Amino acid sequence: MDALVIVEHNMEGVLPATFSVLAAANALNCQITALVIGHDCASIAQELAIIEGVTQVWVLDNEAYAKPLAESMREVIVKHAPSFDYILAPATTFGKNILPGVAACLDVSQVSDVSRIISEDTFEHPIYAGNVLETVQIMDKQRVLTIRPTAF
Question: Which of 45, 80, 129, 134 has the fewest CB atoms found within 10 Å of its own CB?
Fold first, then answer.
Protein backbone atom coordinates (compact mmCIF):
# COMPACT_ATOMS: atom_id res chain seq x y z
CA MET A 1 0.00 0.00 0.00
CA ASP A 2 1.15 3.51 -0.81
CA ALA A 3 0.23 6.72 0.99
CA LEU A 4 0.58 10.31 -0.13
CA VAL A 5 0.93 12.55 2.92
CA ILE A 6 0.21 16.22 2.33
CA VAL A 7 2.68 18.06 4.55
CA GLU A 8 1.51 21.03 6.59
CA HIS A 9 4.38 23.44 7.18
CA ASN A 10 5.17 27.11 7.70
CA MET A 11 7.92 27.32 5.02
CA GLU A 12 10.51 26.89 7.80
CA GLY A 13 9.61 23.54 9.29
CA VAL A 14 7.06 20.75 9.45
CA LEU A 15 4.15 21.50 11.76
CA PRO A 16 3.44 18.95 14.52
CA ALA A 17 0.12 17.77 13.06
CA THR A 18 1.98 16.31 10.07
CA PHE A 19 3.95 13.98 12.34
CA SER A 20 0.64 12.49 13.51
CA VAL A 21 -0.32 11.87 9.88
CA LEU A 22 3.01 10.14 9.26
CA ALA A 23 2.41 7.95 12.33
CA ALA A 24 -1.02 7.00 10.98
CA ALA A 25 0.49 6.13 7.59
CA ASN A 26 3.06 3.96 9.37
CA ALA A 27 0.21 2.26 11.27
CA LEU A 28 -1.29 1.38 7.88
CA ASN A 29 2.06 -0.21 6.87
CA CYS A 30 2.31 2.08 3.87
CA GLN A 31 5.18 3.20 1.71
CA ILE A 32 4.98 6.91 2.44
CA THR A 33 5.51 9.71 -0.05
CA ALA A 34 5.49 13.13 1.61
CA LEU A 35 4.35 16.00 -0.61
CA VAL A 36 5.67 19.45 0.29
CA ILE A 37 4.07 22.36 -1.55
CA GLY A 38 5.49 25.81 -0.92
CA HIS A 39 8.28 28.24 -1.71
CA ASP A 40 11.87 28.13 -0.41
CA CYS A 41 11.07 24.98 1.53
CA ALA A 42 14.06 22.72 0.80
CA SER A 43 14.86 22.42 4.51
CA ILE A 44 11.46 20.81 5.04
CA ALA A 45 12.34 18.03 2.61
CA GLN A 46 15.54 17.37 4.54
CA GLU A 47 13.59 17.21 7.80
CA LEU A 48 11.14 14.69 6.34
CA ALA A 49 13.76 12.52 4.65
CA ILE A 50 15.05 11.19 7.98
CA ILE A 51 11.65 10.22 9.39
CA GLU A 52 10.96 6.52 9.77
CA GLY A 53 8.67 5.18 7.07
CA VAL A 54 9.08 8.07 4.63
CA THR A 55 10.37 6.52 1.41
CA GLN A 56 10.08 9.58 -0.85
CA VAL A 57 9.77 13.31 -0.42
CA TRP A 58 8.33 15.29 -3.31
CA VAL A 59 8.82 19.04 -3.25
CA LEU A 60 6.83 21.44 -5.38
CA ASP A 61 8.75 24.66 -4.82
CA ASN A 62 7.40 27.65 -6.68
CA GLU A 63 6.86 31.29 -5.82
CA ALA A 64 3.19 30.77 -6.68
CA TYR A 65 2.93 28.50 -3.61
CA ALA A 66 4.38 31.01 -1.13
CA LYS A 67 0.78 31.39 0.08
CA PRO A 68 -0.82 28.28 -1.39
CA LEU A 69 -4.53 28.08 -2.06
CA ALA A 70 -6.53 24.88 -1.68
CA GLU A 71 -7.58 25.03 -5.32
CA SER A 72 -4.06 25.13 -6.70
CA MET A 73 -2.85 22.46 -4.28
CA ARG A 74 -5.82 20.26 -5.17
CA GLU A 75 -4.78 20.20 -8.84
CA VAL A 76 -1.31 18.90 -7.94
CA ILE A 77 -2.64 16.28 -5.54
CA VAL A 78 -5.32 15.01 -7.94
CA LYS A 79 -2.74 14.73 -10.73
CA HIS A 80 -0.58 12.38 -8.64
CA ALA A 81 -3.37 10.63 -6.72
CA PRO A 82 -3.85 7.60 -9.00
CA SER A 83 -0.53 6.16 -7.79
CA PHE A 84 -1.69 6.02 -4.15
CA ASP A 85 -4.05 3.93 -2.04
CA TYR A 86 -4.28 6.60 0.66
CA ILE A 87 -4.20 10.38 0.56
CA LEU A 88 -3.70 11.76 4.05
CA ALA A 89 -3.51 15.20 5.64
CA PRO A 90 -3.86 16.57 9.15
CA ALA A 91 -7.38 17.25 10.45
CA THR A 92 -6.56 20.93 10.75
CA THR A 93 -7.96 23.85 8.79
CA PHE A 94 -5.18 23.11 6.28
CA GLY A 95 -6.23 19.50 5.61
CA LYS A 96 -9.95 20.10 5.94
CA ASN A 97 -9.69 22.85 3.34
CA ILE A 98 -7.85 20.72 0.77
CA LEU A 99 -8.99 17.10 1.00
CA PRO A 100 -12.77 17.42 0.46
CA GLY A 101 -12.07 18.92 -2.96
CA VAL A 102 -9.51 16.21 -3.70
CA ALA A 103 -12.02 13.49 -2.78
CA ALA A 104 -14.70 15.13 -4.94
CA CYS A 105 -12.36 15.30 -7.95
CA LEU A 106 -11.45 11.63 -7.46
CA ASP A 107 -15.13 10.68 -6.94
CA VAL A 108 -14.36 8.88 -3.67
CA SER A 109 -15.49 9.23 -0.07
CA GLN A 110 -13.53 11.19 2.49
CA VAL A 111 -13.40 10.56 6.22
CA SER A 112 -12.50 13.51 8.43
CA ASP A 113 -10.81 13.48 11.81
CA VAL A 114 -9.79 9.80 11.89
CA SER A 115 -8.92 8.91 15.47
CA ARG A 116 -8.32 5.18 15.09
CA ILE A 117 -7.38 2.78 12.32
CA ILE A 118 -9.23 -0.50 12.68
CA SER A 119 -8.12 -2.08 9.40
CA GLU A 120 -6.88 -0.96 6.00
CA ASP A 121 -10.40 0.13 5.03
CA THR A 122 -12.11 0.72 8.38
CA PHE A 123 -11.66 3.83 10.50
CA GLU A 124 -13.10 5.43 13.60
CA HIS A 125 -13.83 9.13 13.95
CA PRO A 126 -15.86 11.33 16.30
CA ILE A 127 -19.23 12.78 15.32
CA TYR A 128 -21.82 14.92 17.15
CA ALA A 129 -19.21 17.24 18.66
CA GLY A 130 -17.18 14.26 19.80
CA ASN A 131 -20.00 12.67 21.80
CA VAL A 132 -20.19 9.59 19.56
CA LEU A 133 -17.49 7.55 17.83
CA GLU A 134 -18.49 6.30 14.39
CA THR A 135 -16.86 3.38 12.61
CA VAL A 136 -16.72 3.79 8.83
CA GLN A 137 -15.69 1.26 6.20
CA ILE A 138 -14.55 2.77 2.91
CA MET A 139 -15.26 0.61 -0.12
CA ASP A 140 -13.50 2.94 -2.58
CA LYS A 141 -10.16 1.88 -4.02
CA GLN A 142 -8.58 5.10 -2.76
CA ARG A 143 -9.05 6.35 0.77
CA VAL A 144 -8.91 10.08 1.47
CA LEU A 145 -8.52 10.81 5.18
CA THR A 146 -7.78 13.66 7.53
CA ILE A 147 -6.03 12.43 10.66
CA ARG A 148 -6.79 13.78 14.13
CA PRO A 149 -3.45 15.17 15.35
CA THR A 150 -3.92 14.14 18.99
CA ALA A 151 -4.80 10.51 18.15
CA PHE A 152 -1.49 9.31 16.69
Answer: 129
